[in-house]
Amino acid sequence: MNGLLFLIPIALGLGLLGLAAFFWSLRSGQFDDLDGAALRIFVDEERDAAP
Prior knowledge:
This protein is mainly α. The chain has helices spanning 2-27, 36-39.
């Protein structure tokens, strides 16, 4: 029973920390362009050949 007195606040704290990290990533724009990286491999970039 004494273990639950430590584990429940730790679990709640970790959950709140994860929620705060998720909201921070939303605010900083981490999820703005979900398809850009996936479609970037199809872009054919022509590079100038060095003589």
